[in-house]
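Subgroup meeting minutes
Present: P.N., E.W., G.H.
Scribe: E.W.

1. P.N. recapped why we're keeping a running log of single-chain structure predictions: easier to compare across weeks, and new members can see raw inputs and outputs side by side.
2. G.H. added today's entry (377 aa).
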Amino acid sequence: MGFNIFYYVFALFLYILSIPFLIFLSFKSKYRHSIPARFFLIKNPPFKEKLNYFHSCSLGETKALKPIIEKFEKVNISVITNTGYEEAKKYTNADVRFLPFEIFIPFWLKECKNLVVVEAELWLMLFVVAKKRCNKTILINARISDRSYPKYMKFRWFYKHLFKYVDIIFAQSEKDKQRLINLGAKNVKVAGNIKSIAEFKVTKNYPKPKERLIIAASTHPNEEEIILSAYKNTKNSKLVIAPRHPERFKEIEKLIENFAKQNNYSFNTIDEGLDSDIILVNKLGELINLYAISDLVILGGSFVDNVGGHNPLEVAYFNKPLISGKYIFNQHSLFDMVENYNLIDKEELKEYINKNLIPSKIKNKANIDIILKEINV
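Output recorded in log:
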């Protein structure tokens, strides 16, 4: 109890110091909704009903909850990011909020049936308060990446304390289970990665071009240049580039326009269809539709060393040839569930774009029945 009070006072002190910076950030479009809701409780009241309460961080984690969420008549969901919020709002049986900053949780969180937290959203006050006000506290899809593990171990004393307030943990793999136990977790079971059982539905049918269609998905800074350079002089192919973050759309549009002019390629955005040589996806929610008709997918966030890769399961679900860079330290557990993917250096991309690669496929699927049993479905 003493540590929890100290933690709360420390969080309050940090919050007060951060108020000017938070106000400044709230004017940026990326944070215009999330920061006022999370740090000032603007249009972010407590949940109205006592239901099972799910918390996830962002888009991918929220989307992965679908096979579990659909088992309930009604649920509460909180998120951290705008993209997570928009995805959560798609669940017609969910009441959605942003998770407030730690100092507000004791006053904001009401009674719930069970708290179910996804992956690495280890907020101490959330678990402390939910332990008192909910039947059980459950952590699902828990993972600790190779790169993160040493950092977690430096703060083992903190996580050992936090895990006192978690009743049961479902880890993605045996490796994750052991790492969690090393951090002080108790009652850890392996259920696999819930992202492996997601179904990906096409929401718009694009006509398949006669040319080979290459999708560069979820790209990050410096990766577009790498991919464009590899694509240069590729025969009978179209290249679709989908940047990960919407705030980069304008920047990448200028980059592609300049490249197209210099190399005599045609260019348009996805709103104009797939007629040009290079197409920019300048809106969210189109990747699944494009994976369905693709001939090759290059998965971004993996050719630079500061992201850790992206989810390969969406590609493998459609059995498409898959190329990724080698920096996938945040996605090892997902790649372990996929067969026939290609991890390469950026210098090899031009060669691999022109290879006849074997289609990828999903080989291991999670067991959500043991999770649902714990939530008493």
